[in-house]
Amino acid sequence: MKLHFRLLAVLVLTLFLSGCIFPVQHVSPDPRVHGSDLSDSSDAAVYTLPDAEPTSAPALESDTSSGTPAGITEPKLAIFWYAMADAHVFELRNAFSPELDASGIPYREYDAENDRYRQLDQIREAVRGGWNILAVQLVSEDPGITQEIIDAADGCPVLFFDRTPKTGLFSSLSSDQKKNVCIICTDPMEAGRVQGQMIGEYLTAHFTTADLNQDGRIRYTFLVGDANDPVALALTHAALDTANAILAEEGYRALEYLDEENTIGFQADPNGTWSSDAGTSLILSDLGYYNYTNSNMIELIAANNDDMALGALTALQSAWCNLGDGTSVTIPLFGLGASSSARSAVNLGQMTGTVDGNATGYAQAVLAAVSGLSEGHTPESIFSQLSASSADFSSEADTPSVLFVSPRAVLTNAF
Questions:
Q1: Among 172, 187, 294, 389, fewest CB within 10 Å belongs to which?
Q2: Is the pTM above the cut of 0.90?
Q3: Residue 289 maps to a domain
């Protein structure tokens, strides 16, 4: 009896280790699968799609150029989010869902939970499961991880979107890989320029109101997410340069940083986390000296993202500013990201403006790329036609496999 029991125990242990009883899963908790007849969907809810509606993505002309990759008979899209708990990802997913549902293309979503190795495992799992087009919002821009993702795709088209590798990636790819890899992103400089345009145009229209002490100058502070992040610095300089150019055209002085001894002209989150807490703390500290009593009140605040801007709003409201009540003093306050909370603050007149990253544009671009690649078109031809069809998209000749999604201004009408 003991011998039989030992043999049974060995058999069970062998089956367990081989994955026959409890196979190891690399898919994120509660993955969303859309479509029918999906081979690897046993651990996730499956939804039957309604009859597909016409997609808003433009149809592509036939591409007969040599070297065009073969089309995909039954495209299945896997979308890899860097962190579904992130507010920005929530906004993007809300824009993606109706566009993708209407396309009729089966798709599955994965949550990397901000873990780059988890994301890499999920990509390998998806490819083994038959998902043959991959849309990846990177956890990490590390070139080694990016190359591993492309290798793990095993020839499947890879669309990097929103959080993307540097465009220099293409120089390291083989000719075959270049046909199947593309990038859909926003140019940080363009987002900064849109923010700066809002600031400049608002001030030229409301300069007398914004100039609280009527000295012909606007004292500002700019909240930067991370002083060591080149994207944050690019956003900041693009915004300030654009705003100052508009002011100069109308005969106004350039913005002046509130601390004349600070030559860099901005304040940064000391933890580099772009957080609302940092926005609140920095502005509360500023208000201890730059206030009405000292006749040097802050006259404009801009931030690299909405979280820091909303943190600044909390600090301003503690000083009875920006209440949105129609009577309190409103310090012009600009964010970036167009989160639902920021949009609400803009609508209430508590924030002056924010920049919409155009989540719908991202969804339409990804869908057009998925459809085009599945039909055998090259990224270059897909993006060229998208750029020609809509002002929401642009592509440069020197980086034809990169599509830029144009951001949009969201400005309050409360003034």
A1: 294
A2: no
A3: yes
